[in-house]
Amino acid sequence: MTMCGEASSGLETVEQYFRLRPDVLIMDLRMPQLSGTDAIREIRAKDPAARILVLSSLSGDETIHAALENGAMGYLLKENAGEQTILAIRAVMEGKQWLPSEVKQKLAERRRTEPLTNREKEILELLAQGEANKQIAGILEVSDQTVKCHVGSILGKLQARDRTEAVTIAIRRGIIRSDKF
Fold first, then answer.
1. What are the pLDDT digits (tens) for 155-165?
2. CATH of residue 126
3. How far is Cα of residue 1 from the mean position of the Cα atoms in its chain?
């Protein structure tokens, strides 16, 4: 195996991919300018046969799901990669999916919960910024009661006791990103 290039941003990753055409692209998801998930989507839109393996410290089930939905063929967690890295590269090279047991477990957990709507995710981000229901209602141009209903739905879907726990769960699962706040 030979490493043919590296990139320091999502945009550079896309450029390098199309310039170098590697057999397998190994990429992180947390990158400046363009997220890894967006880079995967952009690469796969132009090259559906691209073989992409994610190697990331991001372990939230929503993050993993998004990477796979957008075209990654494998997902390794950095803290557990070790000897699996070569096996994962070879599997992806052969066109096979590579998901270690801890990643499969995260995806199974995700299937047991009801997904949040885009509006609920938007409200969660505003909650994470410390906004109260009244401020959220003003920002989104909806009633206080509408926000209250959405917050109740969020708490139920995330099985959270309160708003703070809901935000904590959402960040841990990768539903919202903590680097935005």
1. 999 989 999 99
2. 1.10.10.10
3. 28
